[in-house]
Each structure stands twice: as C-alpha cells, then as structure tokens.
Write a structure and sequence with these properties.
alpha/beta, Rossmann fold, 3 domains, six-stranded mixed sheet, globular
Length: 415
C-alpha cells in the first residue's frame, strides 16, 4: 500500500476554501495539453506547470493543487464537439432526452454553459427551444456566426446577471463537461442558481471520478480539469448554493460520465434518488484518502508497462502510430515520455490540429489518411474513450494492423 500525505505548499479548496488537502497523485511538470506548436523550433510549449491531484481534507472534493490562469488555456481552443461522430450522436440523444423530460411551454429558454461550437444547441433549436450559449473561447464567435447565439464570457454571477437582464431566467440550464474545468467554482455555482428560474431544471454532465480511479484514467488529469467529481461532492457543491441534485443516470461519454438533474431547493421535493449511489461511494471509499492509497503506484506501473510494450514493438521493427491528439493523450504522452521514436505520428480528425506538433513530446499530428500512408503495424488509440469509433473508421479504410489500448492495462487488440 502507498501513502497519502497532506499537501505541501499553499492550497485553497475551490469549494469550501479549506487550506489542507491530501496528495493522491503527482504527475510532475507537464506542458499545457493544448499548447500544440507550429514547428519543432517553436518553444511555446516549454513552460510546464505542476499536475498534482489532491483531495480536500474538509469537503473531499478532488481537485488540482495548482491553478493555471484560465485565459491562458481557454481563450483559443482547438477541440470542437462536432469533430467526433460519437459526440454528435450523444448530443442528439441528449437533446431528445431534454425535450422529452422538460417540455415547458412554447419555445422554452435553454442556456448551455461552455457550449463549445454549439453542437448541442443546434439540436435543441431543432426541438423548439430558444437557446443561448456561453463560452469563453474563439468558438463562441464561430458559433454565433453559424446561427447559434453565444455569449463570449467565462460563466459566473456577472454573466448570469447579464443573461437574466437581457433574456430572462432560463427554463433549462445545461452544464456538460464544464464544472470540472472551472477555477472559479463558487462563482459558477452562484451563477447557475441566479440564472435558473424557480421551476427550472439544471442538468450537469461530468466525467465520474469512479472511472478515474477504477479504470486508472489518470490521463484525464491535466491543467484544464481542475476538479474531479463524485456524486457526493457534486451534491454537496450544489447544496451550498441552493440547488438539490434529485436523480442521476450514466452515459458512456469521456470514459463514463454521470448525467445529474438538479433543481432549486425551494422547489425540489427530495434527493432520495441519489441514496443508493451515495451509499455505494461510501462503501467504495471513493471520497476518502484511504480509498486511493494504491493509486499512484498503479499509475507508475501503467507507465512502465506502456513504455515497455512500445519499446519492444519498435525494437522488433514494427511501425507504431497513434490516433487521437486529445488533451488526455498529451498527459499520457508526456508522463510516459512517448517521443517520435516510439510513436511516429498521431492522427486526428480535427483539421485544427493537423500539421501541428504535440506539446512537450513533439510528435507530429497528421490526418488519418497521412497516417495510413505510413502503413503502421500498430495504432495506439490515445483517445481511448472513442476506441470503437476510431477502430471502425480505420477498418473502413482497410487498415489491416492491430490496435493498442493503453488503459487500464496496455494491451493489443485486433478490433
């Protein structure tokens, strides 16, 4: 068993402001996951920052000990939801679910926080909703130009107040894969409460920290992800700001995410729908430091196994490429020191990333067609949460080789 120690250095919990935390995993100094560079001579990715996962001693929120200024990470953003077929299908399914559960009057008002390129909002418009997105990046301007009205801002109380003044309170507020990205968590939660009308509904989708631990998904730990949620910590965070989580389901996005419905405490009946999962988390010690004592050693072992496998394959003359220049892949590539000697190139379907070089390790990012021209014997599926989609696309393009899946244990698969 490993040891979980109290954090050294200054710390302030993003939720409760407590000043002590337990260190669960230290990945060292890593470049920012989206600091892709234009050429091997470009040094913009050389500024590294610590990545240390801690658990607040008081409220148990999993979070990064150290913060990078949000504007440095989010004002220019490369990932677009529309670049993934799985993300497109999920957005359509999500929109149907919302429309079926919350058909409130004619043209109900729906706001999505961190709306990216407007993928979900286009589906919600098709369902008859009046929509507004909020996003701090360049994608907000692009979404607005495409017909999806989007406020370019970091969402907090000020943004919520402006929306209410200009559009009124929202019938439905959607926060998909955003709460974990927000440094100003208290401001976000206060803004959500202010924006939501008394009879309205908040829907939170977020990667579930149970997968982070049980599936060893340490690659999802990077500077943009400042918090990692369990249902216990989400329910407590909402409660502090006059919101109550009433029920939850699970979806396969991002390696396993929960989809939680919440309402204002002055209108919600109860939160008994969460009793079973809260008890399960207690039994599994998901919100206790002692439940994570083995985690750091297991991550180190995965690193050694992955490097060992790739070293053996390349030394035997095999050509290894990667697929998926996702942010999570940059954590794994840099922590495991996967240089171009081990992974020749990494393909990605997002044209914004093609022609760039991965931060830190400098692996070239190419199109899927360019990767296949290299005739790889193995493709490392770095964006493992889209394994089926990626494998299917490559087989459709007559790729005859094998796939490598890195987590939770590195392994070779045929399909």
């Amino acid at each position: 068993m490993g040891a979980v120690t109290l954090s050294a250095g200054p710390f302030e919990c993003r939720l409760c402001e407590h000043d002590q935390a337990h260190v669960l995993l230290d990945l060292g100094l890593l470049p920012l996951a989206n600091d892709f560079v234009q050429s091997p001579d470009d040094d913009t990715d050389r500024q590294t920052e610590p990545v240390v996962l801690v658990m607040c001693e008081e409220c148990k929120l999993l979070q990064l000990r150290d913060l990078v200024p949000p504007r440095r990470m989010f004002e220019t953003y490369l990932w677009t939801s529309s670049s993934s077929e799985a993300a497109k299908a999920h957005a359509q399914s999500f929109a149907r679910m919302v429309a079926g559960r919350y058909p409130v009057g004619d043209h109900p008002f729906l706001v999505e926080v961190a709306s990216n390129d407007g993928l979900l909002l286009r589906s919600m418009k098709a369902e008859g909703y009046r929509v507004l997105g909020v996003d701090p990046s360049n994608l907000a301007d692009e979404a607005t130009a495409s017909g999806v009205p989007t406020m370019r801002a970091f969402f907090a109380e000020d943004a919520a107040r402006r929306i209410v003044e200009e559009h009124g309170q929202a019938d439905v507020v959607v926060a998909r894969n955003v709460i974990g990205h927000v440094a100003n968590l208290r401001g976000l939660l206060a803004g959500l409460r202010k924006l939501l009308r008394p009879e309205g509904a908040l829907i939170v989708e977020s990667p579930y920290a149970h997968g982070l631990r049980s599936e060893l998904q340490y690659d999802t730990i990077f500077h943009e992800h400042v918090s990692y949620l369990t249902m216990t910590t989400l329910a407590e965070a909402l409660r502090r700001y006059g919101l109550v989580a009433t029920d939850t389901t699970f979806v396969p996005m991002n390696g396993g995410s929960f989809l939680c419905h919440a309402h204002r405490t002055d209108k919600a009946n109860s939160a008994h729908g969460l009793d079973s999962i809260l008890e399960l988390e207690r039994v599994f010690e998901l919100n206790e430091p002692r439940g994570w004592t083995w985690y750091a050693a297991a991550v180190q072992q995965q690193r050694e196994q992955l490097r060992g496998l790739l070293t053996r394959l390349t030394s035997e003359g095999n050509r290894v490429t990667g697929y998926g220049a996702a942010a999570k892949a940059m954590t794994m590539f840099n922590y495991c020191d996967l240089t171009p000697e081990l992974v020749m190139v990494v393909a990605d379907g997002n044209p914004r990333k093609q022609g760039l070089f991965c931060p830190g390790v400098r692996i070239p990012v190419v199109s899927p067609e360019q990767m296949l021209e290299l005739k790889p014997d193995y493709v490392l599926i770095a964006a493992w949460n889209f394994t089926q989609e990626i494998a299917g696309q490559l087989r459709a393009r007559n790729y005859p080789g094998q796939f490598l899946v890195p987590l939770p244990v590195p392994r070779t698969v045929s399909d």
